[in-house]
Amino acid sequence: MRGTQVFDNMSLTYILVSVLLFVLVVTSVLYLKKGDVQDVRKQIILEQQGFQPSELTVKKGSTVTFTTTAARQFWPASNLHPSHDIYPDFDAKRPLESDEVWSFTFNTAGDWPFHDHIRSYYVGVVHVIE
Ligand SMILES: [Cu+2]
User: Fold this and answer.
1) Is the pLDDT of residue 6 over 70?
2) Cα Rg of the chain (Å, integer)
């Protein structure tokens, strides 16, 4: 009986350690994924279906690059269309050619919805955190 008890305790320990390791691995993966969004993936692409990603979270001071895969001009700009006055600097201020790259550095924290000024039904939002 005593042997069985020891075995059960060891099984319990083994299960607990396994669960803890699993939680640790999942937490690490989620943390790294979040890091990707904030620190590595700072690109928004206007595709045929719309902006990809349409929602992006970056740290204040991050530069986000806007490009398009659609073979036509585009014009990223902050809302509201057509005045762009929620974040006037967040505006390419002219039509960009399809092979142009436009970058903007977000120095103000907040939620910044934007659109393609040429086709204003293409929309997205950049969340800038401190
Ligand atoms: Cu506009």
Assistant:
1) no
2) 23
